[in-house]
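Researcher: Structure for this, please.
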Amino acid sequence: MKRRITVKLLCALLALVFVLPGGYSAFAYDSQGTSAFEAETAPQAAGTGRYSFYVTYHQTEARTVLSMINSLRTSGSAWYWNSDNRTKTQCGVLGALAYDYELEKAAMQRAAEIIAVFDHSRPNGDEKPFVLYSFTSAGENIAYGYTTAQSVQDGWAEEGEDYDGQGHRRIMLDDSFTAVGVACAEYNGRKYWVQEFRSPRSNAAATAANDLSTLVSVDILDKYIAEKSALTAAKTVYNLAAGDSAALPSVTQTIKMAVSPNNTIQTVRTCTFTSSDASVAKVQGGRIVAVGEGRATLTGKGTGSESVRITVNVTQSGNPPVVTPEDAGVEIKNYTARRTEKKGTLLYLTAEVKNAPANSHIEWDVNYADGSRKKIETAPGGKAEIQVSSDLTVTAVLADSSSVIAVSKTETVETEKGFFAVLTYIIRLIFGITPKVTQ
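Model: Predicted structure, token format:
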């Protein structure tokens, strides 16, 4: 298979054309095209994994390339070098291309794919990117590193190149094409661009431009991956009461590409989870369901031998969570107190947390002897500030958005009483000594 590559400003561009028999072509392809996205949903080939990762599309900007292409095609002055690099082909006034929203969908898929493997061959090993849609004739331009639609179009226009360097330009000026779809996907701060050309145009309805962070899936041959990290679950310990449920955690894996401009991709992996004891906890509808008291291990398996494990502790409804040394444990410590001007004594509370999961927080429950109550939230290691007006008890709970993870022991804070306390307070007030709070 022939391929044209031009490197500019540390940015690579590739051009590729396929045409069915009966028309001019730089490359020959003598089988029928497939229906749109037929290949995307086909079973994975042996030695291939399906990897999902987030990209940010810039389709509002990508669609502006259409007018740039048509300005070139309809100008009447468009040309390209012949192979002798001495004579030119004058294109005249070419027909304007229609925007094809089915082609755009294919271009968006290809933009995600070239993040993993920058080539016209797809990461799943298919040498023909055009299996993503049906066609009579088709072409593809790809690029990365250009920061704007105008700059990438200028790169593809190849005004200053010779014949060998104008492969992308000839595709844009090919009069056999009637439609185009364009995509731009950003990953790790770098933009990837794709133009998909074909004839005939589809009748796909117009869609709103996608300018959002989007989870995409790409099938990648193992040979393109140099290294994989272990699977990592966002949360590995759940403490639930019987009858409760919680969403399964996201599972991620970093893959280091053998050939990729980005080198590494942070993927979100799909795992199938099984329970070591379904009478304690089971997986149902993408959620962990607490069934009965005890402990169960959920094992999530990705492709091959990869796996990740989650511990689920289940208590009877209404009972406090079971906290073991292996779990995130909370220990209240480091009480301090000081006098503040005209406000009495403030008590500062901190909790030292072991193995706190991401996005967890401390919930302080303060109960005064006079019956009043106060609740404060802090980050693990953060400091809670409360007014000491009477004896009080304090409990710290480590929690996240879905459940309580661990509960500390309750601490009682006693205020000093009687004549000695008053005398001590006066002395401290005179000499500016920080008062002590008895624990």
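Researcher: Any notable elements?
Model: The chain is about 15% helix and 40% strand. The chain has a mean pLDDT of 81.
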